[in-house]
Amino acid sequence: MAEDNKFDIAIIGGGPAGLSAALTGRIRNKNIAVFEHLDFSEKLQKAHKVDNYLGLPEVSGKGLMQHFTGHALAHGPKLVKEKVMNVFPGDNMFTLLTPQTTYEAKAIIFATGVVSTLLFAGERELLGRGVSYCATCDGRMFEGKDVAVISYTEEGENETVFLSELCRDVYFLPQYKGDFAKMRAPIKVLTAKPKAIVGDGQVEKLMTDKEEIKVHGVFIMRQSDPVENLLPGLELEGEVIKVNRDMSTNIPGVFAAGDCTGKPWQIAKATGEGLVAVLSAITYIDKVDLA
Amino acid sequence: MAEDNKFDIAIIGGGPAGLSAALTGRIRNKNIAVFEHLDFSEKLQKAHKVDNYLGLPEVSGKGLMQHFTGHALAHGPKLVKEKVMNVFPGDNMFTLLTPQTTYEAKAIIFATGVVSTLLFAGERELLGRGVSYCATCDGRMFEGKDVAVISYTEEGENETVFLSELCRDVYFLPQYKGDFAKMRAPIKVLTAKPKAIVGDGQVEKLMTDKEEIKVHGVFIMRQSDPVENLLPGLELEGEVIKVNRDMSTNIPGVFAAGDCTGKPWQIAKATGEGLVAVLSAITYIDKVDLA
């Protein structure tokens, strides 16, 4: 019955919330995909010591994630190591777009973690008009043109190298500490803080705290993209996804759990919400299947 | 600073929700009491196998509760093995009444578990007019009179023996399987299902599926009492406590977590809510302390 790219529930994010949802979803015998393109909650893995996840005293963040991934993945959800770029609602079925291919799912659970940055001025207005979150997807549109890459993750480095093979001037603005030796000419590495993206209907320049850079495109690589861009129409409350007590959002079939629904940014809150979200998603699917 | 019977936060119930709240409350350095008069979630302890608490695969309910109590109690919340009968709101301070004494707390977290039974017809109307949840508290009012004890727990047996020393006719209606050999005359053990409590302003009789018993008092011993009777004015939604996303209730300073806030009746949901409730309670206390 299960095709390779069709699932009952697609869980976006493999941190504590996503893994808790996957675990209970599999125990309830649903066909589950976990989309995790990075390394299972980098934020938690860096935690020196966690002591308030009841039942597992004094464990390192890394150790806790090993317990979590070992437990959840043993139950056989499909782990998809691709980044979900967009979610499109359809007729009782959602389509998920990654740089590589597309997937389908009857229900979606956002477990994308904290979005720790506010959007840049101009980012929302110019999205798709020069602003992009995916070089693999959109790079070709900038052949022979000038682009900047604002990156919060190492992943952005490969994307930048790829762009340097296509584009004219490529500016790399890492927003993390690292060794950028491999970012060779013609890539220009800038140590500057981006402030705003400016353009009249199309990106014209990137403003930083140091200079003004004329570019046709700005790529932004974050740990997780603003969910409102992933699925337009998803209702937010401030910066977080607005959820009801059963973790449903304003869009039928779309649920959310963990840090992306707001504070407290704590593991037990995330695993509890993941559990509730997947049970609510199963109830939703069962109704749709009957209809 | 801490007196023996004064706490920052009183947590009513020592199941997964209550212990999770106690753990994080202690880590946040608050003076915490956990009121648990029974044996830490009898319901969970009876679970043969639990496999969806992320990070602790294939553990027995009893084993899981050992992990939970070991972890939480190591952080030194005060464990009070008394049953909270009533909570009275006061001036930025709640008073908790047990059969033995009184306690005070700045904030309350209800973590009382599932109330699996509906109230009996007449129970709410006749509470305090012959209906009672505590023989130790109210027994003396029935000296020389006739009483019935409806019990869902073994604890009710001792209360009934106590009543038999005071009252005239004492009927014991156990609603669980057990050996009632110690319930000797004059106690009358009845195997009947209670249906309704009847009386005009005062208890007059108990109706069962088999007979009609004339009594002046009806004692009801459940795993947990209906919370609405514990704290009058607490808003319910159906049978469960109505909570907001931050686990606050309609009464400032009163929070709730776990099965008593509704389904799903699952461990991760309970521990997550316990964590959120205690952080919200701390925020509340800090505000009150500043005011």
From TrEMBL, chains A, B:
Its EC number is 1.8.1.9. One of its GO terms (molecular function) is thioredoxin-disulfide reductase (NADPH) activity. Keywords: Flavoprotein, Oxidoreductase. InterPro entries: FAD/NAD-bd_sf (IPR036188), FAD/NAD-binding_dom (IPR023753), Ferredoxin-NADP_redctase_2 (IPR050097). Coiled coil: none annotated. Pfam families: Pyr_redox_2. Residues 7-145, 190-274 form the FAD/NAD(P)-binding domain. Gene3D superfamilies: FAD/NAD(P)-binding domain. It is an enzyme of class 1 (oxidoreductase). PANTHER family: THIOREDOXIN REDUCTASE 1-RELATED-RELATED. This is Thioredoxin reductase. The lineage of its organism: Bacteria, Bacillati, Bacillota, Negativicutes, Selenomonadales.
